[in-house]
Amino acid sequence: MTAQVHGLSIGVGGGGPLIVADLELELAAGEVVGVAGETGSGKTTLGLALLGHLGPGLQRRAGQVVSAGLELLGPSAVSGTQLRSARGRTIAYVPQDPAGALAPHLRLESAFAELHRAHRMEFSPQRRAELFERVGLPSDDAFARRYPHELSGGQQQRVAIALAFCLKPALVVMDEPTTGLDVTTKLLIADLARELAAAEQAAVVFISHDLPLLFRVAQRLVVMHEGRVVETGTPTAILEHAEHPYTQRLLAAWRLGGSPAPAADGTRQVLSVRGLSAGYGDVQILHEVDLSLGVGECLAVVGESGSGKTTTARAISGLHAEHSGRILLYGEPLAAEVGRRDRAQRRAIQYVFQNPWGSLNPRRRVGASVAITAQYLRGLSRAAAEELAVQTLLDVGLRADHAQAMPQHLSGGQRQRAALARALAAGPEVLVCDEVTSSLDASVQADIVALLKRVQAERGLSMVFITHDLALAGELAHRVAVLKDGRLLETGPTAEVLAHPKDPYTAELVRAARLAS
Amino acid sequence: MSTRLVIRRVLTGVAMLITVSVLVFAATQALPGDIARTILGQNATAEQLARLRGELGLDLPVWQQYLHWVGGLLSGDLGTSLASGTPVAELLRVRVLNSATVVLIALVITLPLGLLLGLAAARRGPLDVGISAAVQTILSLPEFVVGIVLVVLFGGGLLRWLPPTSPLDPRQLAWNQPRLLILPIATMVLIALPHLVEATKTLLREELATDYVRWARLSGLGDVRLLTGYALPNVLGPVAQVAGVTVNYLLGGVVAVESVFAFPGIGSELVAAVGARDIVVVQVIAIGIATVLLITFLIADLIGLLTNPKLRRSR
Amino acid sequence: SAGPAATESSSPAAPTVLRVGVVSLSDADALDPAKATTTGGYILSRQLFDTLTEYGPDGAWKPQLAASVTPGTTADKWTVTLNAAKWSDGKPVTAADVVATVKRWFAKKLPPAGSLPFIDPAKVTATDDKTVEFSLKYPTVTFPEALTSPTMAIVPADFDPAKPIGSGPFVLASNDPGVQLAFTANTGYFGGAPGASELEVKSFPDSAAAASALTAGQIDVDASLDPSLVDTVKTAPGFQIFDYATSGSLTWVMNTKKKPFDDPVVRQALRLAVDRQQLIDQVYNGFGKLGNDVFNPFDPMYNSTLAQRTYDPEGAKKLLTDAGYTLPVKVELVGTNNQPTSERQNQALVQQAKAAGFAIDYKFVDSATFYGDAYGTYPLSLSYWGFLGIFDQAAFTITKTAPYNSSHWTNAEFDKLYSQAITTVDDTKRKELVAGMQKIEYDSGAYIVPLFLSTVVGLSDKVTGAQAYPNSDGAFGYNFRILGLKG
Amino acid sequence: MSVHAQHSKTSGSVWHFLRRDPRFWAGAVAVAIVVVIAVAGPLLAPHDPAAFVGKLYLRPSATSWLGTDVLGRDVLSRLLVGGRLFLIQGLTAATLGVLAGVVLGILLGVTRGTTAAVLLFCSDSVMVIPQILLVLLILAAFGSAPLTLTVAVALAQVAYTARVIFAATGRVTTEDYYRAARAVGMGTGSLVLREVLPNVAPAVLVEYGVRLSISFVALASLSYLGFGSGDVDWGAMIHENQGGIALQPWAVVAPVLVLAAFLLGMNLLRDGLARALAARSAR
Ligand SMILES: Nc1ncnc2c1ncn2[C@@H]1O[C@H](COP(=O)(O)OP(=O)(O)OP(=O)(O)O)[C@@H](O)[C@H]1O
Ligand SMILES: Nc1ncnc2c1ncn2[C@@H]1O[C@H](COP(=O)(O)OP(=O)(O)OP(=O)(O)O)[C@@H](O)[C@H]1O
Ligand SMILES: [Mg+2]
Ligand SMILES: [Mg+2]
Ligand code: NI
C-alpha cells in the first residue's frame, strides 16, 4: 500500500464541527482513485491531509494518515524537516488553479530548479524535457525559459502536473485539476493523470465534482458527502449498484437526458438578431451574429468560455448598448439601451443571470426583489406585486417564507430559483437564461433544468438558453447556435447538429460531450 | 509594451501636475481685495499700482494670468512675497535645503527600518502584536503630538538629552548640526514608519497566503526560502509604491514637525506665510511639494512596473 | 557725551560670538532702515547704522551719531554736529550724508517723512563737513527725541539697500530672511568696538521656543522672553533674568466712531472695568508697571498727579446704568498676535469686564486680516504703542491730524494745548500745558493704557554689560553692542 | 466554478462580531469618556475656564487638580470645556466632507462618461497634495475664521471620499442585480436610492469613520499651529502651554492625553467596525 488513511476525523478548532469524519482509504501504486462529492463535502481537506497538512484552524480529532511508510498525521506523526522533505518528493500536490499556483516571478525551469534545491537534489534538464514531452508540452529550452503568464491555462496545468511528478513521488494528489479548463483540455488532463500514474508507478488521488470525468479517469471511486465516504468501488460497480441516496441522486442527475418539450409554434419569430457586432472599448467581441427564435421555441447558444455568449445575451436584453446590428421583437426593432425600450418591450424579454450570487440585491428581501419587476413592468400596486411575488416563488419551488429572506440566507440553487421567479413575475415572452446552472452542483443543476423545462411548457415561453455544455443543450433546446470567438459557426435543429456537425469545431465539441458520457 | 506603459504613466503625471497647478493658481483668484495693493500697501499711488499690476499681469484675462504664472515658475521666477516684497526664491533657498535634509535623512532611515519591521511583523507572534500596537497608536495621533511627546520625554520635560528646538545655523549645512536634527528626524521617522510597516506587513501576509506560496510549501520548501525567495521579490513593486506614499507623509509632516521644533524649513515658512496670507509663497510651496511628490510617485510606479513579473518577457 | 559703555571690553581677544534669539525675524525685514517696520528691520538698523539721537539707558534722549544737537534761540532752528564716525567702507560720515538721508526720506516718501512733519527738506543744509543746520517749518521742542527711531538711521549719500553700508557697531555678514542675521563687529566703531566680535540673531516662532533654546545653550540672550516663562530660565542653572519697565504698552483702542464708544461714559466705564494689577500678575507674571491711560511715564513731562485708576466694576456698572444702558453692554473686540501676550491680555479683558457689565465678544483674526482693509474700523482692538515721547505719541496717535489715530477721537482743547506746548521752550510752562493735555485724555480719551510692559530678557550668566533702555523698543533697545561675553 | 460560498446559517449581524471584539470595546469606552467630557464637561468644570484661579503655571493642587495654565486659569476646567467646539467642528467637517464625497462618488460612479472621467482625474490630482497643505492653501486664500476652517477641512476630504465611494459604486454597477434593476426600467434616481445606496452604505460608514479621525487630527493640528477657532480647545492648550512644559507639564500632557485617548479610541472603534462589516460581507 502506498498510502493509508485510517479512521481519520478532522474538525474545526477544538470543539467545532467535523469536516472529515471517520475516513478510511487505501491507495496502491499505479492506481488512480477518484474522489467525488458536492462542494463542501471535505474533498480538499482530505487531499491536503494526505500531505500531512491541515488548514488554519483545523484539528485532527482521531485516526492517522500514513503515506509512503511515513506517518504524516496521527499520534506519532513526523514533523519539521522530515515532513518538509516528504512533501514534494514522496507526496506531491497538483493545485486547483495553476495560474495562481505557479510563482509569477519564476521561469518554468527555475521552478524546477527551486524544487530540486529544496530537496537537495541535482536538477537535470533532461528529466524536465522528458516530463514536458510526456505531458504534451514543447520540450525545448526556449519554452522552459518562459514565465507562467506566457502560457495558456491548460499549459500551466500541465506544467504543474510535470512538476508534481518530477521527483518520482509515490503519491500525487490532484485537487480539481480541470476546473476552468475547456472540455477538450479537461479530457486531455484526465488521460494524462491516468498515463502518468501507470508510467511512474505512482498512486494518484483525483479530486473532482465532475462525475463523468471521474468515471473516465479513475480505477476506483470514492464518493464523499458531508465529510464521510458514502460510497466506494469501481466506476462500473457504483454505476450499477449505488446504495447511498446521495450517489443515487448524483447519478440520476447525470443520466437525466431526455428531449425538449415540443415547441408551440416554431414558425412565428419572436426575436431575431441581425448582424450583431459588439465590443468593449476598442476590442470587438461579437462579429455579425444572426439568431432567430420562434414562439415557444428554445434556442441554445453554445460556445466555450469567452466566446461572447454573455455579451450576446446582454445585447438582447439591452444591457450592452455598445453594439451595431438590429434586434427585433416580433419584427419591431428594439432600442439598444434598455432605458429607451418601452415597458412592453422590457417586460417581454427577461434575463436570468449566470451567477446567482450577484444577481439579487444583497440588501433587499427576496420577495421584494421579485415584486419590483411586477411593480415596474406590470404596473401592479405594491400589495398586488408582493402577492404575485409569493405566488411566483411557490411556482418555482420555493416556500412562501422565502419571500422574507435575504439572498445571503439562500443556497445557490434557491437563489437561482428566486432569480427565475423575478424574471417570471414580469410575465415575459422571451426568457434569456445565461448559463443558469454552471455555478451549481450537479444535483442542483438537474433540478433547475427540470424547472426550466416545466415553466417553459406551462407558460409557453420562448427561451434563449446559453450554455457551454452541449449535452445540456440537447436536453432542452429545439435548435442550437454555436459561437466561437464571437462568430456564429453554425446553427440548426439540435438533433441535426448533434448528429451531423458541419463545422470541425462543433464536431470536436460533440465528440467531447459524447466522451464525457 | 512596457515602454508604452512608461510613457503613458509619465504623461499622466504631467497632466496631474497641470491640474494641480490650475487648482493652486485658483487660490489667488479667491483672495479678497487687490493683490497689487496688498503688496504696495495703503499709501501706494495709482501709477505704482498700475505698474505693479502690469508687471504681475493682473490686468490680463485669467487664463493669461495663469500662463504668466506658470511661465514664471518654469523659468525660475517664483514671484515676489506679498508680505515682504522679497523674491520667493531667495526666501526659500535655505529653507528648502533644511527641509530636504531632514526629509531625506528620515527617508533613508525609514525605508530599510520599515521593511525590516514589516518583515518581522509579517510573521505572527508577540513581535507582531507589539509592533502592531505601536503602529496603531502612532497612526492615530496627529504629527505634532508625536513631536511634543518626544520633547516631553527627551527635550527637557523629563530628560534633558536633546535640544527641544532646532534653530539651525543657515551658514552651515544642516547635517553639520546633528544634535539639532535628531529630534525632528526622529519625529519624522516615527510619523512615516507606521504606514510603511503596516503596508509591508499586509503585502507580505497577502503574498504568503497566495496559492503559489502555499503550493511551494506543499512542495517542501522551507519558511525562510518562502519569505525571501517567493514573497519578497513579489512585494518589492507594491512596497516601492508604498515607499512613494511614505514621502507624502514626510512632506505633509514637515509642517507640524517644523513648527514643534521651531525648525527653519519650508513647513514653518508655510505656516508663517498662511498667517500672513502670503498666498504667493504658499502657492510656490504647494506646487513645489506637489511636484516632488508626483516625481516620487512616478519613480515608485515605474519601479512597480519594472518589477511586475507579469510584464517580464522570456527571450 | 559720546558713545555707549562699550569701551570696557575693547580688547581684541579670541572671537566671541554672541547669539541672540528673537521672536521673530520675518521675510519682510528690510535692509533699508527707513522702511523698517519689523523686529528684524529694527535690529538691522541698530546694528548697521546709527541715528543722530537715541534714548539712553535712563530713558532720556542723548546724542548718538551726533556729537551734539542744540536748538537756536527758538525751537525752529537746530544745529547738529557729527561724531568722527566712518562708514564701513572706510569713508568718513559727513554732514552731506545726513542731508542726503533726510532728503531721501522726503523724496521717496519714506515713513520718517511722515513722522517729521516739521522738517522742511529744502531747509536742511550742511554748513561744513560735520555740521548740519535744520530750519523747521514751525518750532518743535521735541526735535531731538523725534530723531531717535531706528527708521531714522543715517545712511550714506549713495545708499544702496542691497549692499547696506553703515556706520553702526556691526557689519552684516549674512542675511537669511526670516531665519538668521549674522554680523561681525565693526572694530573701528566710533563709539568703541562692540563687546562681542560676532553677533548672530536667530529667529524663533514663539517665545517658548526661544526660551528652551536659551536653556539648552543654543543662544546666549533671549531678547523677548515671555514673562510667563521666567521661571523656566530662572530655575535652569547658569541663567539669569534681566528686566526693566519700559514705556511700551499694549493699549486698547476704543473707536469713537463706533457704538457704544462714541459715548464717553462707556469709555470711562470700560477703563474702570480693567483690573490693571491683575493683568500684570496674571498675564505678565508680575512684570510691568501700572498704567493710567496716558502715555510715557519716562518722559519728564509726564503728569504723575493724576489719580491711579483702579478696578471698579461696580463703579463701571453704575456709570453705565446711570447713562441708561441695559447691562450687559455688548462690545466686539478684535485682536491678533501682534505681540506674544496680546491674545492673553485680550482674554483677560473679556474676563475682567464681565463683572463690570460688559459682554465682550472677542474675535481673533490672523495678523494679515487684522491689518487688512478693516483696520481702523474695529470698535475695540489692541495696539502695540510706546517708546515715544509724549509729544510724538500725541502727534502720531492722538491729535486730529495724527496718522495712526485709529480711535478717531478728537478734542479741540487737547489739540490747542498740544500746539502751544510743542512750541514752548520753557520746561515748567510746557509741563503745565502737558499736564492739561493728559488730564483731558485721562477724563475722556479713547485709549486704555492698562500697564507699561517690562522688557524681560533671559541671559546666560556669561553675558555681561546688560543695561536698561526704558524708552526703547526691544531688549536693550536692540543695542547689542553693549553686551559682551566672559569666559 | 469557484463560488463555493458556504451555505452557513450564521450570516450574523455586525453586532454579532462586535460583541466579542475587546479592541472595539476599548475604543468605544475611550471615545465615550471623551465625548462625555466634551458634552457634560462645561457642567462638571470646577471653575470658570476663563477665570484666574491662581498664579500662572501652578503645579496641581487641591483647588486645581491639574494646576494652572499660562494665564493662571484652571487646566482641568479648560480641558473639560475645550472639547465641545472641537467635537462639533470635527463632526461637521467630516459630515460635510463625506456627504459631498458620497454624492460626488456615486454620481461619478453611476454616470461614468467623459465628464466623470475628467472630474475623477481632477480629484485624483488633488490627492497628490498632502491634506494639511491643501487646508493651509484654502486658509491662505480665504482667511482662517472658524467656519472657513471647518469648511476647509471638509473640502480637503471630499476627493478621498469620492474616490472610495466611486470604487464602491463601481462594484455595485457591475453586479448583475444592478443590471437587473436597470432592465426593469428603474430611473437613475431609483437606481441610486434603491440599489447603490444600500450597498455602498457599509463603505460609507467605514469611510465616515476614517474621515472623522482625519478631521479631528487636522483640526487639532491647525489649532496647534495657531489657526484655531480662538476658543478654548485642546490643540490650542498644547500650543499656548508648550513653553511651560518644564514648569507645569500637566498643562500640556493633559490635553495630549485626552486627545490621544480620543483619537486612538476612534481608530479602535472604526477598525472594529470595519472588521465586523468585512466579516459579515465575507458571509
Ligand atoms: N480551515 C478551515 N476552518 C474552518 N472550516 C473549514 C476550513 N477549511 C475548510 N472548512 C470547511 O470544511 C468544509 C469542507 O471543505 P473542503 O475545502 O474540504 O471542501 P471541498 O469538498 O473541497 O469543496 P469544494 O468542492 O468547494 O472544493 C467546508 O464546509 C469548509 O467551509
Ligand atoms: N466589461 C468588459 N470589458 C472588457 N471586456 C469584457 C468585458 N466583459 C467581457 N469581456 C470580454 O469579452 C469576451 C466575451 O465575454 P463574455 O462574457 O461574453 O463570454 P462568455 O461566452 O459569456 O464566457 P463565459 O462562458 O466565461 O461566461 C471575453 O474575452 C471577455 O474577456
Ligand atoms: Mg476543494
Ligand atoms: Mg458568460
Ligand atoms: Ni467548482
Characterize the largest beta sheet of chain B: strand count, sense, and whether it forms a barrel: none
Helices and strands of chain D, in N-to-C order? HHHHHHHHHHH
Discrete helix count of chain D: 11
- Give the overall shape of chain B: flat
**CATH architecture designation of the largest domain in chain D:** Orthogonal Bundle
CATH topology (fold) name of the domain at 88-305 in chain B: MetI-like fold
| Number of distinct beta strands of chain B | 0
Strand percentage of chain D: under 5%
Helical residues, percent of chain D: over 70%
Number of strands of chain D: 0
Strand-pairing-aware structural class of chain D:
mainly alpha
Helical segment count of chain B:
12
Low-confidence stretches of chain B: none
CATH hierarchy: architecture of the domain at 88-305 in chain B? Orthogonal Bundle
Q: What compounds sit in this structure?
A: adenosine-5'-triphosphate, magnesium ion, nickel (II) ion
Strand residue content of chain B: under 5%
Which H/E pattern describes the elements of chain B? HHHHHHHHHHHH
Mean pLDDT of chain B: 84
Q: How many domains make up the coordinates of chain D? A: 2
Q: In whole angstroms, how far apart are the ends of chain B?
A: 15 Å
Give the CATH H-level superfamily of the domain at 88-305 in chain B. MetI-like
Structure description:
The complex is a heterotetramer of chains A (517), B (315), C (487) and D (283). In chain A, 38% of the residues lie in helices and 26% in strands. With 517 residues, chain A is α/β, with parallel strands linked by helices. Chain A folds into two domains: 186 residues, Rossmann fold; 187 residues, Rossmann fold (3-Layer(aba) Sandwich). In chain A, the strands form four sheets. A six-stranded mixed β-sheet of chain A has the order 6-7-8-3-9-10, with helices on both faces. In chain A, strands 16-17-18-13-19-20 form a six-stranded mixed β-sheet, with helices on both faces. In chain A, a hairpin with a 2-residue loop joins strand 4 and strand 5. By secondary structure, chain C is α+β, with helices and mostly antiparallel strands. Chain C has a seven-stranded mixed β-sheet with strand order 8-9-10-1-11-20-12, sandwiched between helices. Chain C has a five-stranded mixed β-sheet with strand order 16-15-17-13-18, with helices on one face. Chain C contains 14 helices and 22 strands. With 283 residues, chain D is mainly alpha-helical. In chain D, helix 2 crosses helix 11. Chains in contact: A-B, A-D, B-C, B-D, C-D. At the B-D interface, helix 1, helix 6, helix 7, helix 10 and helix 11 of B face helix 5, helix 6, helix 9 and helix 11 of D. Bound molecules: adenosine-5'-triphosphate (ATP) (2 copies), magnesium ion (2 copies) and nickel (II) ion. One adenosine-5'-triphosphate binds next to helix 12 of chain A. Chain D: One of its GO terms (biological process) is transmembrane transport. Chain D: Keywords: Cell membrane, Membrane, Transmembrane, Transmembrane helix, Transport. Chain D: One of its GO terms (cellular component) is plasma membrane.
